[in-house]
Amino acid sequence: MFYLVTVVKAALIVFVILTAAAYMVWLERKVLAHIQLRLGPTRVGPHGLLQPLADAVKLLTKEDLIPPQVNLFFYMAAPFLAVFLALIPITVIPFGPEVTIFGYPTYLELTHLNIGVLFVLAVSSLSVYGVALAGWSSNSKYALLGGLRSSAQMISYELPLAMAVAAPLLMANSLDFREIVNTQAGYYLGFIPKWSIFQMPMPQFFSFILFMIAAFAETNRVPFDLPEAENELVAGFHTEYSSMKFAAFFTAEYINMITICSVATLLFLGGWHPLWPADLGSSFLPTLLFFGGAAIAIFHGLQPARPMDRFTLPAVGVIFGGIGLLFLVPVLQPILIPLFWFLAKTVILLFIFIWIRGTLPRFRYDQLMRFAWTFLFPVAVLNLLVTSFLVAVTSK
Amino acid sequence: MDAILFLLFATLAVIAAINLVVQTHPISSALSLIGVMASLAVLYLLLGAEFLAAVQLVVYAGAIMVLFVFVIMLLNAGAEKRQHSRSLMATILGVPLLAGFLALIAYIIRTNLPKTSPVVFGSFKQGGPQDIGRALFTSYVLPFEVTSVLILIAIIGAVVLARKEI
User: Fold this and answer.
1) Domain containing A220: what range?
2) Distance between CA B78 and CA A290 in Å, rounded?
3) What is the pLDDT of residue A301?
4) How far apart are CA A99 and CA B6, in angstroms?
5) What is the DSSP letter of B62?
């Protein structure tokens, strides 16, 4: 039974994560397009919703070029390594509390590790190899420069990242994701959540900001996407890759984003605990949100701006309404509501990633390094010192 | 299950270690070393030292070896050339001397070390971060502090050396 449940959970999580990564690309293109007053993908499916599928087919059927000058073994191994190391940390990330599915009690996570946070840090510190090896084995100057920049950047930003993670760990007094989330349960004055960013004695707001800045650098996103600066390095470390091997790097980047946003949610934003207590009605928020979305979609469907909207928008409305109704079923509530809060926080963080890509320009390389070592690192050390002092003073 | 995992990763560690010496290209050697360290981390995990396993990955595979690989890439070191002309002495005496040396080590270990009971996987439970921290700051506080000072000296030395070149 245990093995069966584990296999089912593993298959489900891999499917969900890979689909989510594909739809992150769609979301990113749509949001960026709307920030720049464009429409984004609209051709494949309603509102371009089938675009990820079309992209996958395109990438799979493209010719897989292998340049003659590459170091073949490492050239082939690098994209594999990138995806492998991106998927591993997902195994220890819990998505919700203990639930009972068909009478079988289980946790909404793949494995329980009492050093989960350390494990995620360890594997993410290895993920630099995928990028560095890709850059080096391509045997091209743009790829090599991209790979070198990436390794230097990831080593530099790992320090403030680990320091920022250490501060909430001090307050939770554990390295176990489940326990860390449990210490963030409850409310001050009945309505202020005890999430790490609000928790006494030292609200971890600064750690959260530091963590997010370092996370942008770790995942090679704007404004720290120097490894793939298009106007200087063509495409950086994956210049020489095509077809599915290019897609592997792309997927790995998006999976890393999802992982790091989940970790931020668990460490700083209280995991699956709602923003306000359930007795003040937080359990009805998902239903209300989905019903609101359904109402807006149906309203616009009745006054179609484009001919196809008459059919697509009411369909979207009906689906949203159905999902909203699911949240009212008492049997499903203990599973769905924690999942909703966890996913809502993670998706908001992911949206911030895209938002910042749409608004900020890229750093210069020396600015990037100076920022990490002369500002981010000292601030992280100071934050850790103040937190540990306050924790030591207030603990019994 | 534990025995299978142990044999798998122990074999992997030995193969990677041999590969590390045999390979001519520095990058291949460095990556083999990472393979050795990752396999060792899994062995630590099997023995119940999960904190040590994570630290092994973070510090050795994640930090030190990244720096190694980084420097190799930066220097763009190519494959080294092996000298194939060995001396006559090494060819004739090499294998017997090596066998004798190994036999001597095996003999010393068998006679001098006390009889030990075999390791049982999962019997050791004091490998968590709390236990390591407590041991480090109570019974091993002097070695810990001495090592800290040593590392501090190394850092200051590195800064001084780097500053001269600017």
Assistant:
1) 2-273+367-394
2) 60
3) 80
4) 33
5) I
Q: Is the pLDDT of residue A355 over 70?
A: yes
How many other C-beta atoms can be found within 10 angstroms of the C-beta atom of residue B147? 11
Distance CA A16, CA A18 (A): 6
Tokens of residue A109, six digits:
């996570």
User: Tokens 């989905």 — which residue?
Assistant: A290
Beta A104-108 vs A96-101: how paired, if at all?
A: antiparallel
> So what's the ipTM on this one?
0.75
Q: Domain count of chain A?
A: 1
Residues of B in contact with A151 (CB under 8 A): 66, 69-70, 73
Q: Where are the alpha helices (DSSP H) in A226-332?
A: 230-233, 243-268, 285-302, 309-326
Q: Please tell me the CATH code under which domain B1-78 is placed.
A: 1.20.120.1200
**Residue A285: predicted pLDDT:** 81
- Residue A172 belongs to a domain: yes
Q: How far apart are CA B41 and CA B60, in angstroms?
A: 10
The 10s digit of each residue's pLDDT in B77-109 is 677 776 666 677 777 788 889 899 999 999 888
- Among A175, A176, A180, which would you mutate to test the B interface (most chain B Cβ atoms within 10 Å of its Cβ)? A175
Which residues of chain B make contact with A122, given a CB cutoff of 8 A?
54, 57-58, 61-62
Find, in chain B, the residue whose alpha carbon is nearest to that of A134. Answer: B73
Which residue, chain included where needed, has tokens 């534990």? Answer: B2
Mean pLDDT of A270-274: 81
Q: How far apart are CA A142 and CA A228, in angstroms?
A: 9
Closest CB to A126: pick one of B27, B51, B57. Answer: B57
Residue A317 within any structural domain of the chain: no
First to last CA, chain B: 56
Quote the minimal CA–CA distance from B126 to chain A in Å: 13
Q: Are A299 and A316 in contact (CB under 8 A)?
A: no
In tens, the pLDDT along A104-130 reads: 777 777 778 788 888 888 888 888 888
Q: Decide if A306 is inside a domain.
A: no
CA distance A187 to chain B (A): 28
Tokens of A395: 């603990």
Residues β-bridged to residue A100:
A105
Query: Rounded CA gap, B51 and B90, in Å?
Result: 44
